[in-house]
């Protein structure tokens, strides 16, 4: 309405201007006519057409002005409308912005809720983490209570395990005590080669601080469904094998194997086969068990229930266990070694006065070597002679033995001690294996020398020995599930050249481990006997697994069995 009203006012003004102009024109025209002597004013009527034309032109002036003003007004109106549209758009934008701003607090509130939830979850995790030590502490207290209820025997084993761990902390340094010279404090150190470090790793020991060792020991029992063995869990053991890039180069490969119970058609009532030693005589194998007085005979193919496989001798020849720990055959005589038996003060030299370990007290301990003659599936006892070498008790005597004929025609026996230093008290001081060289005089196996097993055989125990005619030697360890291969000098074509100089070649040695399970667990837990099939293969026998939770369940698979291995 405002633009239209303004235009009307302008038209009225222009009309007045036009009328005034016409009036002035008429006056001017009258004056001119008067001055020119023309007719008086009433004569103007005769000039009415001229005046009408002039009036029409004067009236056209407002119209022309109005048209010009209308165009301008139209432009102005268009501009106003454009400004109004801009204003409307701006209002809409402002309205949208307001809506966004109104919704932003809701979004902020939702985000805050999520943030609060995250903070609550994090606090719960922290609380769980903080509560975990308390749970571990309670679990540890339960374990400590369980440990306090164990027998003295288990405590001794724990002490041995701790000694092993302490020894491992020395890392490739072995202290060798010269027992021959009787100098208890005269110790020298030798550098143990890289194979020892590999051996420690495969055994499950790791270099760590003392707290880690204590924790590993305390968690060695089965708690909360987690199996533990040798101080490491199954998962830890698996990682150890995965990290070992040279596993195949230092691990023997199983060729074939068979449980003892499946070899014989007639086991003569024997149900346990606590195998301890094996001997290869021209492809026929003989084995003994420390719980039985019988001798097992079988072919190399280990065919089950074969007629060639025999149990020789009565398993229950005497009421007590045999204690047989070694067997070898020379000149058609079978020699079996009883580990360590109580004797009266001083060794026995007469067959008629051999003691019974179940009846004598206050005795010294010596091994007894029986000489047997086989007839079919029975044997006769030819001799039972004691060894001069004295042991500390009945559990750490000769664990293996091998006989050699000398070039002088004499028979020599090399007796392998089970414990380090041939000792029960120092049995866990690794790398101190001993072999006692003996020669028979009358019915006494006299000690000639004690030969040091190289420290590269860095073992917890020593379970058997086998010697090839060329002097190649295999020594096994039950505790560490491995075999050491070395070389004896002074042996030629299976005969001993000089008992005074026979020794090990320190430059020839290798340690091979018996195969692990798919999860890197020690499954050949009880290898006690070893003999060569040839220079590249070994035949071994395994004892019964230890009961009462002293060994994990997976040791059962390979126990009381014969195994053929291929060396790398």
Q: What does this entry look like structurally?
A:
It is a single chain. With 568 residues, this protein is an alpha+beta fold. The chain contains six helices and 26 strands. The strands form six sheets. The chain has a ten-stranded mixed β-sheet, with no helix packed on it. Helix 1 (2-35) packs antiparallel against helix 2. Residues 37-42, 167-232, 349-353 and 356-360 have low confidence and may be disordered.
Instruction: Report the sheet-strand fraction.
Output: 25-35%
Q: Shape from CA axes?
A: rod-shaped
- The rounded distance between the terminal residues' Cα atoms is 112 Å
Q: What is the percent of helical residues? A: 25-40%
Number of helices: 6
Rg (C-alpha, Å): 56 Å
* Major sheet summary line: 10 strands, mixed
What's the arrangement of strands in the largest beta sheet?
A: 10-11-12-13-17-16-15-14-22-21
Summing up helix and strand content along with how strands pair, one would put the structural category as: alpha+beta
Low-confidence stretches: 37-42, 167-232, 349-353, 356-360
- The number of E-state strands comes to 26
Average residue pLDDT: 76
Keywords:
4-stranded antiparallel sheet, 6 helices, alpha+beta, 568 residues, single chain, 10-stranded mixed sheet
Layout of helices and strands:
Layout: H1 2-35, H2 48-148, H3 152-168, E1 173-177, E2 187-191, H4 194-203, H5 210-218, E3 228-229, E4 232-233, H6 234-243, E5 253-259, E6 275-281, E7 284-289, E8 295-299, E9 310-312, E10 324-330, E11 333-343, E12 364-375, E13 378-391, E14 398-406, E15 411-417, E16 434-441, E17 444-452, E18 464-467, E19 472-477, E20 482-489, E21 491-492, E22 495-496, E23 503-513, E24 527-534, E25 537-542, E26 561-566
Parallel strand pairs: 13-17, 14-22
Antiparallel strand pairs: 1-2, 3-4, 5-26, 6-7, 7-8, 8-9, 10-11, 11-12, 12-13, 14-15, 15-16, 16-17, 18-19, 19-20, 20-23, 21-22, 24-25, 25-26
